[in-house]
Amino acid sequence: MTDLAPDRAQPLAPSAPAYLRGRHIGTMLSFVALVLLPTALAAWYMYARAADRYVSTVNFSVYTEQTATAIDISTLLGAGGSSSSSDTDILYSFIQSQELVRQIEEDLDLRTIWTRVSPQDDPIFAYHPPGTIEDLTDYWNRMVRVYNDGTTGLLELQVQAFTPEDATAIAQAVYDRSSDMINALSAIAEEDGTRNARADLDEAVEALKQAREAITRFRNETQIVDPAASIQSQMGILSALQAQQAEALIELDLLAQSAGETDPRVVQARQRLAVIENRIEEELEKFGGGATPSTTGQGERFADLVGQYESLIVDLEFAQETYTNALAAFNGAVAEARRQSRYLAAHVRPTLAERSTEPKRLQIVALTALFTFLAWGILVLAAYALRDRR
Which regions span the lipid bilayer (predicted)? Predict the structure, then answer.
């Protein structure tokens, strides 16, 4: 039996020495050009040219009154009102608007404030004067940042400037202008809510004036303050005349039994009875067909005067009732409008910075290095992928 010789490992061929090839040099050069150089340039600018900026912060929200009571501390904390998200969205848009920029420019001269650092010293972050209002608005949106918490309705405003005092002044001006805008919205809403009620009240007041003037004119023309009282007086006179007529008839009947027709007493009694009857007819005619004195010398029937007076009284009572209802409706509309009035509540007043927090130099340099490295890595991978496909 023959023994087989064990297998022996074959020696490996010596590897070729590694040399730095052109693609390696190109990769390193691209790393320097696309990563190291931009990062170094960003670091140089951040620490050598970029000016310090100070930040002032203010937090506020829009509240709507739930009651017409005075505002106290509990109201400001939210016990007496509720934050309005729609008003917050309006205010959020207003703070970024060109209108507010124009107003603050008129108040504080933003171009002067934001050119305290010359554009030659800091060409990236400084404002380049004079610029148009659109340029100023674009720069405003870089220096004034507003954050809206949609759940609570809280607005946080961060204002940047090259001095702490300027940042605080701009933040205070924004808060004041925002408060004025909210107050204007509240006034418009109150005016809209009470416009119809006010118009109804004005009409009711005018109708009441006309009704009272009509009664005054009636009294001046007829010289009668109250026709009802005058009727009562006339009825008293008529009753007295009728009583005298009855007495005269009795007296005439008694004389006729004891004296002749030519007796002077009978003649006198008949004359007295005729006078009383004529007077009764005159008084009766005053109610239906007679006349009463007036300023024009002509007369009107008492029945017509009473009808006119009663019509005027009905108009006056209706006007008074309409006025009372319109006044109540107007007071209710005013109370409701005031109950829904808006106001701006500042939870954090504009702060005064003690040190600069902008620009965030290390963060900007680190982000520059990260993104340039990612871009370089993508380019290198793409280049090697294309090379391997050949």
Answer: 28-47, 364-386
Question: Which domain covers residue 219, as residue numbers?
Answer: 200-336
Per the structure, the count of domains in the chain is: 1
Mean pLDDT confidence for 125-148 = 91
**pLDDT tens, 2-15?**
454 455 555 555 55
Orientation angle between helical segments 98-108 and 164-222, nearest 10 degrees = 100
Is position 298 within any domain? yes
Q: Does the pLDDT of residue 329 top 50, yes or no?
A: yes
Residue 237 lies in a domain: yes
Give a yes or no: residue 288 inside a domain. Answer: yes
pLDDT tens-digit map of 27-46? 888 889 899 999 999 999 99
Structural domain contains residue 359: no
